[in-house]
């Protein structure tokens, strides 16, 4: 059976560029740039240029949602990113980011402060769905994993983001990720699975009934033969 989908962006919740804001490495003196361009209600494009020379091999370019979403996704299994075709994807590594806490107060100059994010990396190899189950999301701070972080609170997702980064010098240059949607998903069990195998059990009961009926018929035939002096 197909997965049950809750669209967060795209699908039945049209893309809206005003719901997203930019956070690039320029806040740290870098030169990377990113944009989220809404082509139409069902097509958004996360694109820009990742520069790794200014910061000596590091760099990032990202877009994230504005404000706090407070999404309750605890009944879902993860996030599915639907990459648009038919054109070939750029083959680069991206990260979908989540936050489950409120952002810290901005600096005196208006810049955002760094805070813990949950990142799930994926490669845009071809058009299609990329499923990111919750265990794929790793707690990170400034791109480095924080294994001592508390578990992700999927009942209160406050921010969703898209990030292109160098992954410590592995990639740079122009990038473009064309998207249909970002959605939460969960497996929708088949009716037979929900009954815990009742169909199989019912089939066994039917078979047992047929056997018992056959035995009863044979016993009756034996008694008739006995009464008639045939046995």
UniProtKB/TrEMBL annotation:
All residue ranges annotated as the NADH:ubiquinone oxidoreductase intermediate-associated protein domain in the record: 16-178
InterPro entries cross-referenced by the UniProt entry: Galactose-bd-like_sf, NADH-UbQ_OxRdtase-assoc_prot30, NDUFAF1
Residues passing through the membrane, by range: none
Bias (Basic and acidic residues): 105-117
Spans annotated as Disordered: 92-117
A Gene Ontology biological process term: NADH dehydrogenase complex assembly
GO molecular function: unfolded protein binding
UniProt-listed SUPFAM superfamilies: Galactose-binding domain-like
Pfam families: CIA30
Assigned protein family: Belongs to the CIA30 family.
Listed PANTHER family: COMPLEX I INTERMEDIATE-ASSOCIATED PROTEIN 30, NAD(P)-BINDING ROSSMANN-FOLD SUPERFAMILY PROTEIN
This protein's name: Complex I intermediate-associated protein 30
